[in-house]
């Protein structure tokens, strides 16, 4: 695997969500690299190492997944704020390579519901960025068996929220209206 020479481990770790120690092991061939991980590193390697994602520590989808994994059981409301922050920061990206790196396949959160939310949001923002083809890795996540809304929402709002949820989230069984992705 060709290694992105211009990137420090810290920048690649931020972009991909892969621990620096694992990146070192992959680079020196002391640990095998799966095709999925190799693809994440390849996409990250196309970016400017001093670009906005790493320079400003933007909350790209891999970093969002890591943050949600840490906080989902203790502070789910903060997790939904982080989702909104991730969407809002997309406006800071102008380069196609940065946009692709921002949408690198994230690691799992360990919770199918949060994974479905993150993947649905990534598919939604990818489609809004003008790409004609769907986000490749977003097709892998199956829909939840039951509808899920993060946080406590009165049941009387369920239908309204469902109608205003982007299709990429609805098809994954997640109720998360577009308004929740926007700044208040």
Query: Termini, distance in Å?
Result: 44 Å
Average pLDDT taken over every residue: 91
Q: What portion of residues belong to β-strands? A: under 5%
Largest sheet: none
Helix/strand order: HHHHHHHHHH
The coarse silhouette is globular
Low-confidence stretches: none
Report the count of strand segments. 0
Structural class: mainly alpha
Whole-number radius of gyration?
17 Å
Domain count: 1
Please work out how many helical segments DSSP would assign: 10
What share of residues is helical? 40-55%
Quaternary class: single chain
Structure characteristics:
184 residues, mainly alpha, 10 helices
Structure in words:
The structure is a single chain. The protein is mainly alpha-helical. It has one domain. Helix content is 49%, strand content 0%. The protein contains ten helices and no strands. α5 packs antiparallel against α8. The longest helix is centred in the middle third of the chain and has 17 residues, at 112-128. It starts with 8 loop residues before the first helix and ends in a 14-residue tail after the last helix.
SSE layout:
Blueprint: H1 9-16, H2 20-27, H3 35-45, H4 52-55, H5 61-71, H6 76-89, H7 96-102, H8 112-128, H9 158-163, H10 167-170
Helix pairs in contact: 5-6, 5-8
């Amino acid at each position: 695997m060709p290694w992105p020479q211009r990137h420090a481990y810290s920048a690649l770790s931020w972009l991909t969500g892969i621990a620096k120690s694992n990146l070192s092991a992959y680079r020196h061939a002391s640990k095998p690299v799966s095709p999925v991980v190799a693809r994440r590193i390849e996409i990250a390697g196309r970016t400017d190492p001093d670009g906005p994602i790493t320079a400003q520590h933007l909350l790209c989808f891999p970093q969002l997944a890591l943050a949600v994994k840490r906080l989902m059981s203790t502070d789910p409301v903060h997790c939904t704020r982080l989702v909104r922050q991730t969407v809002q920061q997309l406006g800071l990206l102008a380069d196609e390579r940065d946009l692709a790196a921002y949408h690198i396949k994230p690691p799992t959160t360990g919770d199918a519901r949060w994974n479905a939310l993150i993947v649905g949001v990534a598919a939604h923002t990818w489609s809004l960025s003008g790409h004609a083809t769907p986000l490749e890795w977003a097709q892998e996540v199956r829909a939840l068996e039951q509808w899920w809304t993060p946080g406590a929402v009165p049941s009387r709002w369920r239908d309204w929220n469902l109608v205003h949820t982007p299709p990429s989230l609805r098809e994954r069984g997640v109720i998360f209206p577009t308004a929740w992705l926007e700044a208040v």
